[in-house]
Amino acid sequence: MSSAGQPIRRNMIVQRWGTPAATVGSVNEPRERSENGVAFNEKWLYRVPGHGAEPGYERIVYWLRYDFVASFVIKPDGSVAREEPRTMLAGVRDRLYLPPSVAPADA
């Protein structure tokens, strides 16, 4: 859960950034790993292309079961910086399935 209160859900990340280019581990992976100071069992890797003169970079999103742990950006120079994705996810809602209303039988 993020410090802003609402948890960051997997569907929110996919809606904003698409499906990851690669994954390591899985939600059902019993082993926890540690990297960049966070414990996780699933890692999503994104390759973000550059635009114009701006170089591309990579993004890593860490999960522990279904819970968001952290997001990091690997800059073109190889340095790693933690990011707070909450602002990038503004306006994105987790997809909640709401079944359509069923019309009354006598309608």
Q: Indicate the percent of residues in helices.
A: under 10%
Sheet having the most strands: 5 strands, antiparallel
Arithmetic mean of pLDDT: 84
The low-confidence runs, each spanning 5 or more residues with pLDDT under 50, are: none
Radius of gyration: 17 Å
Beta-strand share of residues: 25-35%
Q: How does the helix and strand content classify structurally?
A: mainly beta
Number of helices: 1
Number of strands: 7
N to C succession of SSEs: HEEEEEEE
Report, as a whole number of angstroms, the end-to-end distance.
Answer: 45 Å
Shape: globular
Strand order of the largest sheet: 1-4-5-6-7
Structure description:
This protein is mainly beta and 107 residues long. The protein is built from one helix and seven strands; from the N terminus they run αβββββββ. The strands form two sheets. The protein has a five-stranded antiparallel beta sheet with strand order 1-4-5-6-7, with no helix packed on it. Strand 6 and strand 7 (80-83) form a beta hairpin. The protein is globular.
List keywords for this structure.
mainly beta, 107 residues, 35% strand, globular, 7 strands, 7% helix
Give a short synopsis of this structure:
The protein is mainly β and 107 residues long. It is 7% helix and 35% strand.
